[in-house]
Design goal:
Largest sheet: none
Helix content: over 70%
Strand content: under 5%
Number of helices: 20
């Protein structure tokens, strides 16, 4: 009898094994597609958001009565708003997504939802406090701290946005933790659509009422931001209501539920979110150093209006252009935190190495051409986008050097945060900010440097931060990247791109005009760069197959005898 039982048990085990293997393969495929689809969704969303952002930035900068001076007022106010926003909510999406993804990975949907509810209540209170602080402190901050009294009304108009962003951040973190980045992408897109449309509408109305007052037009632009954040939250709230039944079913199917007290959950959220927020605070401090030092220092040898305009170039046009690659690359940082956290919870080291290496390589391929392109075509780009206010080519050239370090650092931070190394990014950027502060205080008051000194300070800041985080990453994860693949081939591709695109611009600028030649040169640069990446086989065949529609792409490349 015993012998028959053992044979029967063995037969059942053999019969079940193919099913288990098929299930593991299915989970792996779903995880792969979920990660990459999430990145593509966020990338598309961020590109659209940035394009919409460029529309209203172009409108404001070229609008009579606004220009660089208006950008200076808005930028100074926005940096203070960003600081309070950072304290009240930045770090929350990644913290919530990390904690939720860890619970979901082991089947504890009830615990994941409880984290969301407690976080929502907690950060609603924190966000409300932040809004009240900015509303009541706007006068003191603008007149005494910034020495830009025109910024008072812009801060008042921005203050309610802190509350809406805080609660929206919790909802986005919950959806990201459930591997549902579409809700986040859509809410951000809706928010930006409203921001673009309302900025133009509100500023035009204010311009008529105030007889083209730069101060009141700036306040109108920030009021549009507040209204847009409310629209973004409205979408998230309505979306949550549509999935409540699905969430309820998941909660009923919960396994491995572990009850935790409210205090314990809040502590866990803060333990994760505070180090992440500290990184964002350091980034905000980096910008606020410019807010506090640039205008103040420039006024020593420039008229006040000129000093404000110079800061407007740096904080308006240049920041908008150099942050474009960062906005696209944020998809990796957002998707990596829950993906790495879930893989670590399953003790899946292979997935961690694969996703980290692929993401870092792709970030390099995004950052490098943007750095080179903006350095080569700084003047033509400004003339194309800001025909009525095209100053700042040298400042853009210097600032373009930060792109490669900030983009790579953003991806590394996502990996480290997902892996649980939460303090490293904050410490690294903190050291970079100290370097930036010293350089600003030394270089900006020097007429030979002026506002260019602040741009060099930012380059040094992000170089230092990148060097520290990269060293920390290599200690915890053995990346599947060689120097040839990560540096030599991308540099070769971008060199070919730069030479060909500049040649096109040089030849055609005298024939079809500078603006059309700039557009043509950028289009040629994109084509040449993509072809160079393919021909140099920077991505391996396995990496191409990991991409959405990778098998089909691979077959085409095999027919072309590239692989």
């Amino acid at each position: 009898m015993r012998s028959n039982y053992n044979e029967n048990e063995k037969y059942q085990d053999t019969n079940l094994r193919p099913r288990k293997n098929r299930r593991k393969k299915q989970i792996k495929e779903e995880t792969k597609q979920g990660f990459l689809q999430g990145i593509l969704t966020l990338m598309f969303s961020q590109i659209l958001i940035k394009l919409l952002g460029m529309i209203y930035t172009l409108y404001l900068t070229n609008r009579e009565g606004f220009g660089d001076e208006g950008n200076g007022i808005v930028s100074s106010s926005y940096q203070i708003y960003a600081m309070l926003l950072t304290i009240s909510s930045i770090g929350v999406p990644n913290a919530i997504s990390k904690l939720v993804s860890e619970r979901v990975a082991v089947g504890d949907h009830k615990g994941a939802h409880r984290i969301f509810k407690i976080a929502f209540a907690t950060f609603a209170v924190i966000g409300l406090i932040g809004s009240i602080m900015l509303f009541l402190g706007a006068g003191i901050i603008s007149k005494q701290w910034l020495q830009i009294p025109e910024a008072e009304m812009t801060m008042v108009a921005l203050s309610p946005a802190i509350f809406f962003v805080a609660i929206s951040s919790v909802m986005r973190g919950y959806f990201n933790g459930r591997q549902n980045v579409k809700a986040t992408a859509r809410s951000q897109t809706i928010e930006q659509v409203f921001k673009t449309a309302l900025t133009i509408i509100v500023v035009e109305i204010v311009a008529i009422i105030s007889n083209v007052s730069t101060e009141w037009m700036a306040a109108g632009a920030t009021l549009a931001t507040t209204l847009a954040t409310f629209a973004g939250f409205g979408y998230l709230f309505l979306y949550y209501k549509t999935i409540r039944k699905e969430v309820a079913r998941e909660i009923k199917s919960t396994v491995n539920y572990k009850y935790e007290r409210v205090k314990t959950i809040i502590k866990k959220i803060l333990v994760v979110s505070i180090p992440i927020a500290l990184t964002a605070i350091m980034s905000s401090l980096n910008k606020n150093i410019d807010s506090f030092t640039v205008v103040r220092s420039l006024k020593e040898f420039l008229p006040e209006s000129e000093a404000l305009a110079q800061y407007g170039i740096l904080g308006g046009k240049v920041d908008m252009l150099t942050s474009l690659p960062l906005s696209i690359n944020v998809a990796f940082a957002t998707a990596l935190v829950p993906a790495i956290s879930a893989a670590k919870a399953r003790k899946d080291k292979k997935t961690i190495v694969k996703k980290s290496s692929f993401s870092l390589l792709t970030s390099m391929l995004i950052a490098l051409p943007c750095t080179v392109g903006m350095f080569i075509f700084a003047g033509p780009i400004l003339n194309l986008l800001f025909p009525n206010a095209s100053d700042g080519a040298v400042i853009l050239q210097i600032s373009s050097l930060t792109i490669i370090f900030t983009v790579l650092d953003q991806t590394i931070n996502g990996i480290l945060q997902g892996y649980g190394k939460l303090r490293v990014p904050a410490i690294a950027l903190g050291i970079g900010v100290i370097v930036k502060l010293i350089l600003n205080l030394v270089l900006v008051p020097n007429p030979a440097f002026g506002v260019k000194g602040a741009a060099w300070g930012s380059v040094a800041c992000h170089l230092v931060a990148f060097a520290i985080t990269m060293a920390a990453l290599r200690k915890v994860i053995k990346l599947n990247l060689t120097f040839k693949k990560f540096v030599v081939k991308p540099v070769l591709a971008v060199t070919m791109m730069g030479i060909c695109s500049y040649f096109i611009y040089f030849v055609f600028s005298g024939i079809i005009g500078e603006k059309m030649a700039t557009i043509l040169a950028i289009a040629v640069a994109v084509i040449i760069y993509v072809l160079a990446v393919i021909v140099l086989r920077i991505f391996s065949k396995e990496e191409v197959k990991e991409m959405p529609y990778g098998d089909k792409i691979c077959k085409v490349l095999e027919k072309l005898r590239i692989y």
